[in-house]
Amino acid sequence: MKMVFMRRFPRALAGLIAVLAVLATSACATGAAAAGAKPGQLLIVTAFYPFQFVAQRIAGPHAHVTSLTKPGAEPHDLELTPRQVASIYDADLVIYQRYFQAAVDDAVAENGNAHGKDNLLDTADFVPLEDHGPLGEENDDPDDRAGTTNLDPHVWLDPSHMITITQAVDRRLDQIDPAHRADYNRNAAGLITQLKSLDAEYRTGLATCKRTEFITTHAAFGYLAERYGLQQISVTGLSPDTEPSPARIAQVQQLAKTHGVTTIFYETLISPAIARSIAGDLGLRTDVLDPIEGITSQSRGDNYIAVMKSNLTALQRANECS
Questions:
Q1: Which parts of the sequence are annotated with region: Disordered (predicted)?
Q2: What is the rounded distance in angstroms from the CA atom of residue 203 to the CA atom of residue 73?
């Protein structure tokens, strides 16, 4: 019996230490998260920018909303500090998407939230992630979680999915803070109106184009392409920092010639070197198509809707839409 106890003790001790670390850090984290908050405000922690945008628009002055991903940082490779882990535990509401940021998934799985499961909002529960095709040899991911490597996380680039997310956040805030339900409902309705208008602009603006194919360095636009009848050709897969193989670059160049592509798109948070190299070899233009994973001084707009409109303009110009 003594030997059994001794074998189990280290594992139990490790678990206890992990829990104590979160609890010890949580008081500091709460103070840090609340540093910009006013008395009585909810504390909402979001995984990255699109969810922060939705939460801020719906909650308005009733919440202090933060993002775990700093502006300009690449959200795919997010690593959390102990203070950020504790902020997830302490928040009144956490909005995230599983399979996108492993560090957030782990923090939620290991520590949960002090207020219970109802205060954890996983958008993948109501916006199913889709497989937008094989990633190719250059994107073989040894850390694939249960075959999820091909699941495209970029659902927010389809405005209809953003409407669904808005509705879900509104419902959850109604439950958490019913005293301000009328404000949340009104703010959500206003945002949904804007998102419906954005969707209509895309449908009209991309209805008549010379071509439907577009080339981008990062396979972030599968949902957008599917929604508006386009075909995404990506140099790399879902991971934006993957180096493409020479064979893939040659294949993309041939596809560009076949489809009469005029533009190679790159994005604001990663180097444009690959796009410029491919474009230079073929005498094509380069332009920005932003996956809106974060807003920086380089973004073509200061919020989700503004950048989506800039993306629409870029696609219309590249595909010669009338």
A1: 127-153
A2: 31
Beta bridge partners, 43, equal 64
Contact 87, 29 (CB under 8 A): yes
pLDDT at 130 over 60: yes
CATH of 2-140+151-198, one of 3.30.565.10, 3.40.50.1980, 3.40.50.720, 3.20.20.370: 3.40.50.1980
- What are the tens digits of pLDDT across the range 109-123? 999 999 999 999 999
- Note the pLDDT of residue 132: 82
Q: Which two tokens stand for residue 116?
A: 């219970």
The pTM for the full model equals 0.87
Pairing status of strand 151-152 against strand 130-131: antiparallel
pLDDT confidence band for 18 (50 / 70 / 90): very low
* Encoded amino acid at 11, one letter: R
Q: What is the torsional sign of CA 137, 141, 142, 144? A: negative
Higher pLDDT, 27 or 61: 61
The full set of domain ranges for the chain reads 2-140+151-198, 206-318
| SS3 label, residue 212 | coil
SS3 285: strand
Write out the CATH class of domain 206-318. Answer: alpha beta
Helix (H) or strand (E) holding 22: helix 2-33
